[in-house]
Amino acid sequence: MKKRTKIIIIAVMVLLLGVTGYLNVMLNKSVSSNGDDTTTTSSSYFQTYRTDRESTRDQQMLYYDAIITSETSSQEAIQNAENAKLELIDQMEQELVVEGLIKAKGFADCVITISDSNINAVVKAGELTQSEVAQIVSVIQSELSVGIENIKIIPVE
């Protein structure tokens, strides 16, 4: 693939991500302005987030596959795409495991995001006690081996 084509593909990915984020915000505003039922809003948040995350990752996988299968890709580009794809799959598995373990601790719902330096846990709860925060931190630290300073827990009612 030519460098220009790759740049165009990446630009389109970024544009689609921006559109997805904008639509997510508009959908959440629409749901919250249609009624005072916070359960619907938070359930909608978690479902919408998972749907957006899944569609974004599907697009990423398609782009990596396109680079891997392209006859014009260099060996280095193919290797980089394969490595990035494997890292993404590993991250997806880690998020799924941690989300499941946090739900097993008695929380109604949660989503986990993993970046290079931080772990964010959005948990469905009005407020969290110190005990509940300690449970979440314990799960994250045991599964992902990160320091407490890199963990952010956000309760969403």
Description:
- The chain is mainly alpha-helical and 157 residues long.
- The chain has one domain (3-156): Stage III sporulation protein AH-like (Helix Hairpins).
- The chain has helices at 3-33, 38-69, 75-104, 130-144; strands spanning 110-114, 119-124, 151-156.
- Strands 1-2-3 form a 3-stranded mixed β-sheet, sandwiched between helices.
- A hairpin with a 4-residue loop joins strand 1 (110-114) and strand 2.
- Helix 2 runs antiparallel to helix 3 (75-104).
- The termini are far apart.
Rounded to the nearest angstrom, the distance between the terminal CA atoms is 47 Å
In the CATH hierarchy, what is the class?
Answer: Mainly Alpha
- Tell me, briefly, the overall form: globular
Number of helices: 4
Number of strands: 3
Rounded to the nearest angstrom, the radius of gyration is: 18 Å
CATH structural fold name: Helix Hairpins
Low-pLDDT sequence parts:
none
Outline of the structure:
With 157 residues, this protein is mostly helical.
List the helices and strands and how they pair.
Blueprint: H1 3-33, H2 38-69, H3 75-104, E1 110-114, E2 119-124, H4 130-144, E3 151-156
Helix pairs in contact: 1-2, 2-3, 3-4
What distinguishing features does this structure have?
single chain, 4 helices, three-stranded mixed beta sheet, mainly alpha, globular, Helix Hairpins, 157 residues
